[in-house]
Design goal:
181 residues, mainly alpha, 8 helices
Length: 181
């Protein structure tokens, strides 16, 4: 008696398992992002500099986090804007986990992605920012992601085509003597 499943049933079973693992991974990432934003926001609420609205001002004046001093200086020169950005950061981070199941989430996502891109440029922390932008993108509507897919893939295909069309690097000529003593 043959107890093997037909191929189409095995494929269906494996597709179901793959979808379940994928959805569980997305759930874990979503929980981590919510934890990151909520703890960061609540710790900022407790900090005196964030309550005063001056924390961002101090960060913009740290030499280690100013890859473009003129840009940081231009932003830091506007004290009201720096204070508003600081308070907006706290509000966004605290509010995000509570808005997951409403349409307001999409507005917060745009603001959070803009915030992380600003951190990448102003403070010179691109890897953290890009990871958080990628994690935030998990919460974007699927229809938007499907529309953005070809737009994001086009520059990658263009760069891959340019690299493939590049002539190979010149190596040592045949018969040439190696340099050295």
């Amino acid at each position: 008696m043959n107890r093997r499943l037909p191929r189409h049933e095995v494929r269906t079973l494996l597709d179901g398992c793959a979808a379940m693992v994928h959805n569980c991974a997305l759930l874990v990432i979503a929980a981590q992002v919510c934890l990151i934003y909520s703890t960061a926001g609540w710790y900022k609420i407790q900090g005196g500099r964030w309550q005063e609205g001056t924390a961002l001002h101090y960060v913009l004046h740290l030499d280690y986090f100013t890859p473009w001093p003129w840009l940081s200086g231009a932003l830091a020169a506007n004290a009201v804007l720096v204070m508003l950005l600081g308070h907006l950061t706290v509000v966004l981070q605290v509010a995000f986990p509570f808005t997951l199941f409403s349409r307001i989430k999409n507005v917060l996502l745009v603001a959070l992605i803009a915030e992380h891109l600003g951190i990448a440029v102003l403070l010179g922390i691109p890897f953290l920012s890009l990871v958080m932008v990628a994690c935030d993108a998990l919460f974007l509507p699927t229809a938007l992601l499907l529309r953005l897919g070809p737009l994001c893939a086009a520059p990658v295909r263009w760069a891959a085509g340019r690299l493939a069309a590049r002539p190979p690097a010149a190596g040592p000529r045949e018969g040439a003597r190696p340099a050295g003593p």
